[in-house]
Amino acid sequence: MFKWLRRFRALPPIPEAAWQTALSRYAFLGDRPLAEQQRLRQLSAEFLRDKEFHGAKGFTITNEVALAIAAQAVLPVLHLKGGLNWYDDFVGIVVHRSEVVAKRKFVDEAQVVHEYNEVVAGEAMERGPVMLSWDDVLASSITTERGYNVVIHEFAHKIDMRSGDANGCPPLPSGFAGKRSARDSRTAWLAVLKPAYEDFREKTILADRFGAEPPWLDAYGATSLSEFFAVACEAYFVNRAAFGRDFPEVLALFDEFFLPKRPHT
């Protein structure tokens, strides 16, 4: 269906009891100011209207499943200009009961093809659907201390992909970081994010190889700059205090991007 036609469809009602249950289960949503909760509820209803949920291998999409995913998915775009337009390149959301084994293939510098299996809790496909594990969505209610949230992770990738391949730098608004050109804004973004990624990667390697204390963020963020962006977004939205303590420069950068109308705190 054309995007403009979807606007004429009635918003699905979100029962008060169901909404309060979601806010209670996912404390990082329930702890937000009332005005933000109201905005979150409105965007969640629009998300539910516009997206199509599919249960994989017999998994049943219930109202609880759809609302839990919607409420967390819209959090990153809550204050972004354009709102849900950031997600208008796809419609489908595929939900599995648990993690999925995905087949991977890559060609190395010597043009040798390597194939392997990877266990994934979620995946965002460029201009395609989002896949999520329901077990991991539920786990997001108790993993805020570690900054883990599979829904925010995958939808952060979708935001990153708005300009093409995921590379850790989403499309930036005009004048971002006080720069006059998009190129300069991107340079300013990477000047903050890349050193944070490299430092995180170094600490992860030290922990893995030499027994040093591991970082509290998901080590998967050390695999690439795009994964670090997604992992950092998880922590930014669900455990702002800890994230700001360890990544103050990235916190300020994300505030400027995700909260353009709010003063930094």
Describe the structure.
The protein is α/β, with parallel strands linked by helices. It folds into 2 domains: 154 residues, Glucose-regulated metallo-peptidase M90, N-terminal domain (Cyclin A, domain 1, Orthogonal Bundle), CATH 1.10.472; 99 residues, Collagenase (Catalytic Domain) (3-Layer(aba) Sandwich), CATH 3.40.390.10. 47% of the residues lie in helices and 12% in strands. The chain contains 11 helices and 6 strands. The strands form 2 sheets. It has a 4-stranded mixed beta sheet. A hairpin with a 5-residue loop joins β3 and β4. α4 crosses α5, α9 packs across α10 and α10 packs across α11. The longest helix has 29 residues.
Topology:
Layout: H1 3-6, H2 16-25, H3 27-30, H4 34-50, E1 52-55, H5 63-73, E2 92-96, E3 100-107, E4 113-120, E5 122-124, E6 130-133, H6 134-139, H7 150-160, H8 182-210, H9 225-238, H10 240-246, H11 248-258
Parallel strand pairs: 1-2, 2-6
Antiparallel strand pairs: 3-4, 5-6
Helix pairs in contact: 4-5, 7-9, 9-10, 10-11
Structural class computed from helices and strand pairing: alpha/beta
Mind telling me which CATH architecture of the largest domain this is? Orthogonal Bundle
**Approximate strand percentage:** 5-15%
What is the H/E order?
HHHHEHEEEEEHHHHHH
Low-confidence stretches are none
The total count of strands amounts to: 6
Please tell me what the overall shape is.
globular
CATH topology of the largest domain: Cyclin A, domain 1
